[in-house]
């Protein structure tokens, strides 16, 4: 086993809140990230994902536990660590007054790269981010997806060993998300270590080799997307709708069909290895759902199982 590039042991972050006890945002996270791995933190808003990313990025100090980034303690080696990381924060912080190319160039200079190198890297990265024709456009004029790709390009200017991405596609439309996923996939293929946070289960399934499911600052589960689904859900899910005022009442008559039921406000989820057979049993019992759908289990089902809540509320 190669040495991990990130090792967190019982990592804690508390925030001071006026007139109240300290608020525990990260409550004892332990995890390791191997070189070249694509590692995810999946959890709802407020889970402590950004707080964890800021500690990994050596821009926020931990309140407890141990943390090593590339073998270094961020408390002592902040600048060294920051110079070897690429960071894509949750909120884009590009300079809107400058054009796309200038944003890359200036960031490279900030890292102390020679001007000539910055020019060359800016061109390479604009090509990578598929923004060549936007090189001289002001950042304020770019779409959300373009800004996100530019922020990723900027994060790559120092050839980082690790790229940290905090909610890389939140707020983007489906097409822009797919373009972004494709770019991140390429980075992964090149061996860049990716650490990303997301509250989208499909994003985690697409991009993460391994992930932790986080809720209220704690790890609820850890594994590959497939192993998490295997461990915490059934193979298939039958979704049936009987109308919002009838779902709860009908659910009582569905007990015993499938391994487990989840009654959501708008639908009932029946966890089973065989959704079609479950549906046949329901209709055989004289119940006619308005709509029905059989699908594979997803990380959303894992999260629902572990927390009793939906990931996106
Ligand atoms: N600077 C801060 N001061 C006080 N509380 C904070 C601060 N930053 C974040 N929090 C709180 O910590 C919790 C975790 O926040 P955050 O790490 O941003 O979660 P996530 O990124 O998973 O949505 C939230 O309840 C948030 O309100
Ligand atoms: Mg966040």
TrEMBL record:
SUPFAM superfamilies, per database record: P-loop containing nucleoside triphosphate hydrolases (SSF52540)
Domain ABC transporter residue range list: 6-241
Pfam families linked: ABC_tran
GO biological process, one term: response to antibiotic
Annotated InterPro entries: AAA+_ATPase, ABC_transporter-like_ATP-bd, ABC_transporter-like_CS, ABC_transporter_ATP-binding, P-loop_NTPase
Location within or outside the cell: Cell membrane
Protein family membership: Belongs to the ABC transporter superfamily.
Protein name per its UniProtKB record: ABC transporter
